[in-house]
Every structure is written in structure tokens, then in C-alpha cells.
Amino acid sequence: MTRIDFYILQDVDLSAMRRFACRLAAKAVGSGHRAYVHTSNATAAAEMDELLWCYPDNRMIPHGLVGQPEAIGAPVVIGHDDATDWDGLLINLAREIPVFFGRFDRVAEIVVDESKSMGRDHYKFYRDRGYPLFHHDLDEWET
After folding, report:
1. pLDDT tens for each residue of 54-93
2. What CATH number did the domain enclosing 114 receive?
């Protein structure tokens, strides 16, 4: 059964959510795993693509956008539609829970002040369906 991890950041804005997603992706790659970063739309996917080129500092995370040549064989792929050939870690940055989340071994939901309501809705969705839920309260995670 898919494990759901909620990362509760003591940050206010959504940019912290995206930066933390980069850190999760880097950690997955460093551990030999693959990650799929799911966004709400093509614009958000392109923003994550740009951010992964420069964050965290001094670290290049091999990645690509779904449908682009760079995504072939990349350990991190960013998309906003279907994640057909992916498993491993799903980092969900979208407002909605993707219908394909059950394909993944793990799902990471990142919560900041601006997204608390969405985080509660996602938590209830997973809880009501019996998925194993884990919480990680993080403060000063960028230091």
C-alpha cells in the first residue's frame, strides 16, 4: 500500500513548498530512487523545471519535463498530467490528488501556511481510504 508522508513546514508561502520539493527530489536521487513531481499545470511544471536547475545551491539534479527528451532516463521528472511509467516517489504539488497516486510506493504532500486547507483535505482523503499516514514537522529546514 502507498505510504503518504506529510511534510509540515513552518513557512508561509508556496515558494517554500517548491524549494522543499527540490530537496526531497535531491534526497531521492541521492538514495538511488526516482521521483515524479506532480504540478497543477504546465506553467507550474516549467517553474519547477527552472528551480531544479539552481536549487539547492551547488547541486545539479538530473531532471526533465514529461514529454521532453531530457526526461528520458532522468531520475526526476516533472509533469501535470499522467505519470504513466513512474513509480517510486510522487511529490504532489497540485491542488488535487492525482488519480494515479496509488502507483507509487510513497507520496509526499508538503504543507505551508498558504496550503493548510488543501493539506487538511488531502489528509482526510487518504485517511478515509486507509492509507498509512506519516507526519514530519520541520522548522529551519533550509539551514
Report:
1. 887 877 789 999 999 999 899 999 999 876 677 899 999 9
2. 3.40.50.10110
Q: Exposed/middle/buried for 107, CB within 10 Å: 0-12, 13-18, 19+?
A: buried
Does the residue 126 lie in any domain?
yes
What is the number of other CB atoms lying within 10 angstroms of the CB of residue 90?
25
Question: 35 by DSSP, 3-state: which?
Answer: strand
- The whole domain housing 57 covers 3-138
Q: CA of 3: how far to CAs of 44, 89, 116, 138, 143, in Å?
A: 25, 10, 20, 19, 27
- Our count of domains for the chain comes to 1
pTM (two decimals): 0.94
